[in-house]
Amino acid sequence: MLNNRKYEFDPEAHREQLIPLLKVILDAPRRLSPREHQQLMRRYPKPAGEGFYSLANLVDAWRLFAGQGGLPPYDQAMLFKLRRKPVRTMSGVTPLTVLTKPFPCPGTCIFCPNDLRMPKSYLADEPGAQRAEKNAFDPYLQSWTRLQTYHNLGHSTDKIEIIILGGTWSFYPETYQIWFIKRIFDAMHDFGKGIDRRESVIAALRQKSQFAGAPVSRVKLLGIELTASYNQTVQDIYAAEMHRSRGQAQAIASGLRERSLVDEFATWTELEAAQHENETAACRSVGLVIETRPDHISQEEVIRVRRLGGTKVQIGFQSLNDRVLALNKRGHDVAATRRALRLLRTAGFKLHAHWMPNLYGSSPQADLDDFTKLFDDPDFRPDELKIYPCSLIESAELMQQYQAGDWRPYSHDELLELLVACFKQTPEYCRLTRVIRDIPGTDIVDGNKVTNFRQLVERELARRGDKCVDIRAREIRRKKVAGEDLRLDRQRYRSSIGEEVFLQFITDQRDIAGFLRLSLPDPDDAALLPELRGCAMIREVHVYGLALGIGAMDKGRAQHAGLGTRLIEAAARISAQRGYQRLAVISAIGTREYYRKRGFTDGELYQLRDLCQPKAQESTHRLE
């Protein structure tokens, strides 16, 4: 369980040591390498043998001493030289990943781990899972603590992409879903106001459970092993808690019981109030992501996720081969994936696919054919993609096929050759967000344990005189750009519901500074909701560069060159020329104000703009 009583560092007491140290770091022509940083820390240790200054100590000191003792005035962009893992916020937003609690899963996939301490498919040794377990899977504790870590390390916490992982989101009770997201918003609002309610949440958790407040502690304490299925065992372990939660929710809804901070119940009205507050909060949601299965996507589910504030769905394709899906007991066919993506596209969601090579029954050539179908078939063509080669985990049913000699992991060379071919086929409009899942090598029985495989693939491509052109490979990141260095490029491709237009501001080298995804549904394609009839749809606007605070400026950075507005105006012109009456946007809660200032008005679940008269003249950058 989280211990909130931490040692408070007082920079003022270390002023004499810290100011010279900060001057060396900030005056350096570039960010110090990890080795250079370590050497510098040894030159400037804490007095009286107290050890070395942490990065959080340096960030606190810079915030306090900026403009004093020869240090430059405070500039948020200067934090880059102090930050640890600055790449986390290089994409323009700060990711906040939280995990749901262990819960039964509708799937029986043979490759899936069965860790009773975790939601299905996750392992307790994974970094995000460790943070969730330490915080008893409570959404408030996970969110507040992660935001504090970002702040302590100098990252912006103004624009947050909420990423909810853990099993199949659509299988959790609706009241839990509403409560979980509301509590994330509560944590963001409290953090933005400097309010810390974690001790109260911890006390409520301890009162709720006889095992120190963390449901997962029950598994450890009882030493339970998986003898039945994961679902049955989880049901057995948490049966009383699940029954109690249902009873408490009914009592709270009926007004018969007061609610505690950890009762898994909230109403739509309460969530909508939290969403309204977040529109102008200091810590805003600029995206909300859930993960689910294709066979749990229906029109009702799509509308519910949108009502929750969702803007992106991570969805497990795993394979586009019905035979492979059946052999791996996936529980759905390729047709279900097609139906799910069509519904999600109709609603404007960004599509983040998971794809798994090396599944039981597949082969390197079959996987390459499968990957080719991902982008050749208009029914798929995801916006983002995670490539997760199948890893052999001891608790997975796949161990039986492995021990029988019916399945083996690809060799290093086989996997490298396959991924090189996959990277070459990935189009510019897709972002390869992850290659190789972050599973500790100690949990992998056999197979690839190299976590930086993306880097190996890119090196091999370069050796062959080639390169990857996906979005992540082309992000402009910290490069300074001028307007005249960028041109607006347009790419068109078909989807299952119409035409997609990918607008991107790029340099002559095709580095990307910002993009917009515009959906142009076929006229005879039925709208999901009445408010979307006759609408073109902006599914995403993203401007790259280091994440800065709301209203902050950093001259020359892509995030503040007005690219977002220019992309929106280009999308409006294209939509009007194609005869659409209105332009809709699937806006996040914290971006509603942004779109209101650009001519959009609030609908029921979307924001809309009349296209009868263009709002602005065409940019001097032509469409290529």
The CATH top-level class label of the largest domain: Alpha Beta
Rg from Cα: 25 Å
Low-pLDDT ranges = 1-7, 210-224, 556-560, 614-624
State the end-to-end CA separation: 55 Å
Number of strands: 16
Task: Quote the average pLDDT.
Answer: 86
Strand arrangement within the widest β-sheet reads 1-2-3-4-5-6-8
The amount of beta strand, in percent, is 15-25%
- Based on secondary structure, the structural category is alpha/beta
CATH 2nd-level architecture of the largest domain = 2-Layer Sandwich
The 3D shape can be described as globular
Individual helix count: 20
CATH topology description of the largest domain: Transcription Regulator spoIIAA
How does the SSE layout of this entry go?
Blueprint: H1 15-27, H2 34-43, H3 55-65, E1 94-99, H4 127-134, H5 139-152, E2 159-165, H6 174-193, H7 198-208, H8 217-222, H9 230-253, H10 268-278, E3 284-292, H11 299-307, E4 312-318, H12 322-327, H13 334-346, E5 350-355, H14 364-376, E6 384-387, E7 392-393, H15 398-403, H16 412-425, E8 431-435, E9 444-446, H17 453-463, H18 471-474, E10 487-494, E11 498-506, E12 512-521, E13 535-543, H19 563-577, E14 582-585, H20 592-596, E15 601-602, E16 607-610
Parallel strand pairs: 1-2, 2-3, 3-4, 4-5, 5-6, 6-8, 13-14
Antiparallel strand pairs: 7-9, 10-11, 11-12, 12-13, 14-16, 15-16
Helix pairs in contact: 1-3, 5-6, 6-10, 14-16, 16-17
Structure keywords:
disordered C terminus; alpha/beta; 20 helices; seven-stranded parallel beta sheet; seven-stranded mixed beta sheet; globular; 4 domains; 36% helix; 624 residues
